[in-house]
Design brief:
Largest sheet: 11 strands, mixed
Strand order of the largest sheet: 9-8-7-10-6-11-12-13-14-15-16
Structural class: alpha/beta
CATH class of the largest domain: Alpha Beta
CATH topology of the largest domain: UDP-N-acetylmuramoyl-L-alanine:D-glutamate ligase
Helix content: 25-40%
Number of strands: 24
Low-confidence stretches: none
CATH architecture of the largest domain: 3-Layer(aba) Sandwich
Radius of gyration: 24 Å
Strand content: 15-25%
Oligomer: single chain
Number of helices: 15
Shape: globular
Mean pLDDT: 95
Length: 484
């Protein structure tokens, strides 16, 4: 592809060389430079790509895109832009043939609920015959493929590459978690989302290299509604009006408020062995009753958001019901089938706040016993272990303390710290350092009506111990125990 074609939608200045040259690829990591590529100099928190521009040329790059005026580069075309991250997004979209023009795209922003809502949308649409991919916390997912990513919202080149791969695999839609940092750093630039969803807003990602203030955090999220055609907004969130300030899209609302265009009411908990969820009625732009296979009243808003966007697709209402009734989110209060009359869940809760949230939610289902298996990460602040131990001791009927990515620490030292927290409560506990043995203990000692939650690993498929990561998927461990 000609360089001038890649630059079609960008304001730029040619510092040297010509744009009438063939480009083999768009590269932003100098270690991956190939012959005749264009190297885009990104400025990050730890490194500045401009430092490696001449090295990129020496290794075969035919052109370099910069945002600095003081660059002295020989042997390649040099293109000056105001923002290289923004340029990368538009160049990547062009390089992959602007795949968002073919796919329906849904962007989800919010402090919580992005992963769950994305999984709900995919579940509904695929029940309706619309093959759908996801880009988010769980990676890039389409068909039976899962590609791990370093960030919730990957770099723009990776997004465009994934969108093209989804089309090639037969997908008609992509659901993307649009994180505040992904939006801030222009990773979601280069196209307009068909739909943007706002779930909720609360304190997070403040300080360091993230957001300097809550205002900056909110403003970055709000940019999604200047980058989509239809915005679907949780009207119950106190920041809803701020989130859509200066929006350029058509707005629809959902929530429990009387003014919501899609309204939920009559919410109640559903509980049976192997199934914890919620039931609620929907009125307004849809009129139906829904059962959702994820526990907790917070599930209502996520499910309502999913229904609000999926009603725009040419699918039967039954697909909305079936998709939510059978939805699974890997590692997020994920129910695993077991032969007994108890419920076994896998969840990513790995700190005090998330553990308190999940255990408080599960308590609402009045289990015979609430059993929590968990450990704590090594080479991390010890206070976290004390806090997790205290919360599990207070909210669980039985805590099963075990390993979880002990890294370079002795697992028994970590367990001792957790016990310090539990000992502040009257909670019962057992210690079983080997995680597989601990899971076996829980299964073999389960009673009717118990809820057992394996906390900490969630969607992870590895154990990190003694500086080495080894494959470890709790779903496989459970299957081996039950099958054995």
């Amino acid at each position: 592809m000609k360089l001038e074609k890649l630059l079609t939608r960008i304001n730029y200045t040619v510092i040297s060389g010509s744009t009438d040259i063939e480009i083999s690829d768009v590269i932003y990591d100098s270690r991956k430079v190939i012959k005749n590529c264009v190297f885009v100099c990104l400025v990050g928190s730890a490194a500045d790509g401009h430092r490696f521009a001449q090295d990129a040329v020496n290794n075969g790059a035919a052109a370099v895109v910069v945002s600095r005026d003081d660059m002295k580069i020989s042997g390649a075309a040099v293109i000056r832009v105001d923002d290289t991250r923004k340029a990368l997004a538009f160049m990547s979209a062009e390089y992959f043939g602007n795949p968002a023009d073919t796919l329906k795209t849904i962007g989800i922003t919010g402090t919580k609920g992005k992963t769950t809502t994305a999984s709900m949308i995919r579940s509904i649409l695929e029940k309706g015959g619309v093959k759908t991919g996801i880009i988010g916390t769980l990676g890039i997912l389409y068909g039976d493929k899962t590609i791990k990513t370093a960030n919730t919202t990957p770099e723009s080149y990776e997004i465009q590459k994934a969108l093209r791969a989804m089309i090639d695999d037969g997908c008609k839609c992509c659901v993307m978690e649009a994180s505040s940092l992904g939006i801030k750093w222009h990773r979601t630039d280069g196209f307009i989302f068909d739909y943007g969803i706002f779930t909720n807003f609360s304190h997070d990602h403040i300080g360091g290299v993230e957001h300097p203030t809550m205002e900056d955090y909110l403003q970055c999220k709000s940019r999604l509604f200047r980058q989509c055609t239809t915005g679907i907004i949780n009207i119950d969130d106190p920041t809803a009006d701020q989130m859509i300030e200066n929006h350029t899209c058509r707005i629809e609302t959902y929530g429990c408020d009387e003014k919501a265009e899609l309204k939920a009411s009559g919410a109640s908990l559903l509980s049976k062995p192997g199934y914890l969820g919620v039931h609620f009625d929907v009125t307004g732009k849809l009129n139906m009753s829904l059962d959702v296979a994820i526990p907790g009243m917070f599930t209502v808003h996520n499910a309502l958001a999913a229904a609000a966007v999926c009603r725009h697709f040419d699918i039967p209402e039954q697909a909305i019901y079936d998709g939510l009734n059978e939805v699974k989110v890997k590692g997020r209060v994920e129910a695993v089938k077991v032969p007994g009359n108890y419920t076994l869940l896998i969840d990513y809760a790995h700190n005090a706040v998330s553990m308190e949230n999940i255990l408080t939610t599960l308590r609402e289902y009045h289990p015979n016993r609430l059993i929590t298996l968990f450990g704590a990460g090594g080479n991390r602040p010890r206070d976290r272990r004390f806090e997790m131990g205290e919360i599990s001791g207070r909210l669980s009927d039985l805590s099963v303390i075990t390993e979880d990515n002990s890294r370079f620490e002795d697992v028994n030292d970590i367990i001792a710290d957790i016990k310090c927290g539990i000992d502040k409560t009257d909670g019962s506990y057992v210690t079983i350092p080997d995680r597989t043995d601990a899971i076996r203990y829980c299964i073999e000692n389960a009673m009717d009506g118990d809820i057992i939650v394996l906390a900490g690993k969630g969607h992870e498929d590895y154990q990190d111990k003694n500086g080495k990561k080894t494959h470890y998927d709790e779903r496989e461990v459970i299957a081996d125990i039950i099958g054995g």
